[in-house]
Amino acid sequence: MKNEGLPSILVAAVSSLGIFIMLFILYFLVTEGIPVLREASLQKILLEKAWYPTETPPALGMSALIVGSFSVTLLSSLLAIPLSLLVAIFISDVAPSFLRDILKPVLELLSFLPSIVLGFLGMVVLAPWLQERFELLSGLNLLNASILLGIMSVPIIASLAEEALSSVPGELRDASYALGATRWETIRRVVIPWARPGILSACLLGVMRSLGETMVVLMAAGGAAIIPESVFDPVRPLTSTIAAEMGETPVGSTHYHALFFAGLILFFMTLAINMLSAWIESKGSVIRS
Amino acid sequence: MKGNVQIRSQNVNLYYGPAKVLKDITFDIFDHTVTALIGPSGCGKSSWLRCLNRMNDYIAGARVEGEILIDEHDIYARDTDVIALRRNVGMVFQKPNPFPMSIYDNVAYGPRLHGVRSREQLDGIVERSLRGAALWTEVKDKLTSSGIGLSGGQQQRLCIARAIATEPKILLMDEPTSALDPMATARIEELVRDLKKNFTVVIVTHNMQQAARVSDFTAFFLLGELVEYEVTTKIFTAPDDKRTEDYITGRFG
User: Fold this and answer.
1) What pLDDT digit, counting tens, does each position of B87-112 carry?
2) Which residues of chain A have pLDDT under 50?
3) What distance in Å separates the CA atoms of residue B50 and residue A245, rounded to the nearest whole number?
4) Closest Cα of chain A to B230: distance in Å?
5) How far is B83 from chain A (nearest CA, A)?
6) Which residues of A touch B (CB under 8 A)?
7) Pick the CATH number of B5-248 from 3.30.450.20, 3.40.50.1980, 3.40.50.300, 3.40.50.360
8) Are A46 and A40 in contact (CB under 8 A)?
C-alpha cells in the first residue's frame, strides 16, 4: 500500500508523455499548415480543383486531391470489406480446424506484405493487364490503386474480424444450434450481432489504412490531380501528393505550407471516420450491456 | 407411475475419436416424468444427454453406435431431420446463455427460426413461454430490455422459456443450476417439477439431493456405463448395486 504513489505517478507520466507527443504532432501540423491561408482562402483550398502549387501565383485548390483520397478509399473498402468478412466467417465458422490452422497464419503473414511490393505488382502486372483488357491509355488509375489497397487491407480486416468472430462464446452457438438453427442462421443471427463492434473496428482499421497509404497510390493511382469520372481515371490522393512534392519544395514556401495543410485535412478525415465509428458502436452496444 | 416410453436408448456406444465414452447404454425414459442422470464427473451422463438432440454432431471425431429412438423414431437414421428433432427436444445448458438481444427476441428466436412471423402469434408464444418458465411477472414490463441484464437465476429461467417456446416434447437440462445460488436453484427445481406436466424432462445433475428432490427416475452413470436405473426413491433408499450405494452415500465422487 505505502508504495502506491510512485508507480502510479510513473504510469501517469509515461501515458501523458504519449498524449503530449500526439498533441505536439497536431500542433506542428497546425502551425506549419495554417500559414497557407495567407495565400489562399479555406474556401478556395477546399472547393477549387486547380492544383498548380509551383506556378506564380500558385493555384492551391485541393478538392481533386481530397476526392482522390476519398474515392480510392471508398472503392478499395467496397472491394475489400465484403471479401474480408467472407474470409473471416469462413475461417471462424466454416473451415475445418486443420484448414483454420493453416489459413490464419497465412493471413497474418500477408498483412506484413510491404506496400511497395504491392505497388510494384500494380505497376508491372496489373497496370498492363488493365490497359490491354479495357483498352485504356494507361493502366495506372483509380481502379488499379483501389484493387491494390483492397488486397492490402483484406488480411488486416479479415484477421481482426476473424478474432472478433471466434471470441463469440461457444455457449451462444450451442444455444442457437439446440434451438434448431442451421449454421448460417446461427452466424447471421447470433455470431455476427455479438461480434459487430469488433468487426466494425476491423473494417475501420482497414479503411484508415487505405486512407493513409502512400506508396501504393503513389505508384499505381496515376497521379493526375483531376476529379475522376470513371474508375479508369487516374487520381492523385493527398498522401501521394505530399510524398511526391515534399522533397521538391523549399522550406517555408507557400507550397510547403500547403502540403502541411493537406496533412491536416487527412488528419480531420481520419478523425471524422473515427467519430462516425464510435457513434455507430455506441448505438449498437446498447443491447449488449 | 410408468407411462409410455418416449426415449429408448438401445446399446448406445459413443466414441470421441478412439476413446469410448459410453458403453452399451440401454434404458427407456417415460413421458411426463423427470429423469435425473447422476454420477461423478466424466462418467458420460452429459455426453449421453447430448446424444438426444445430436449436439455431439459438432464434436470432431464423435461417433454414435446403437439406436436412440424418440417416439419410436431412430434419431440417428439417415432420414432424420435434425432441425425438426431439435425443435422437439429443447435444451438448457449449464451456464445461463441468453443471446445478446432483448428478452422478447430471446424467447422468439426459436419460433422465428421455424417460420412464425405474425407479431400476434409471437406475442402469445413469448407470454406463454415466459409464464411456463415462471418469469413472466418479473419481466413483463421490460420485454424489450436485454436478456443479459437479468440476474443469473432469471437468465436461466429465460433460457428455459427460450427452450420451451418451440413447444418441444422433451426438455434436456445439463446441470442447469450449477452456476446459480441456492435461492435461484430452489426456484428452478420447483419449476422442473412443474414442467413435467407438459414435458418429459431429463436433467443431469451433480447434486444428489437435487436428483432426489426433483426426479421420478434416476440413472446412475459410472465410467461410461449405466450402473443402475430405477425409481428415484428406490435408488436413494435401497439401490441394487453396491457402486450406486457407495456413490450416493458419498464414499466417492
Assistant:
1) 999 999 999 999 989 999 999 999 99
2) 286-289
3) 67
4) 28
5) 4
6) 96-97, 169, 171-172, 174-182, 185, 189-190, 193-194, 286-289
7) 3.40.50.300
8) no
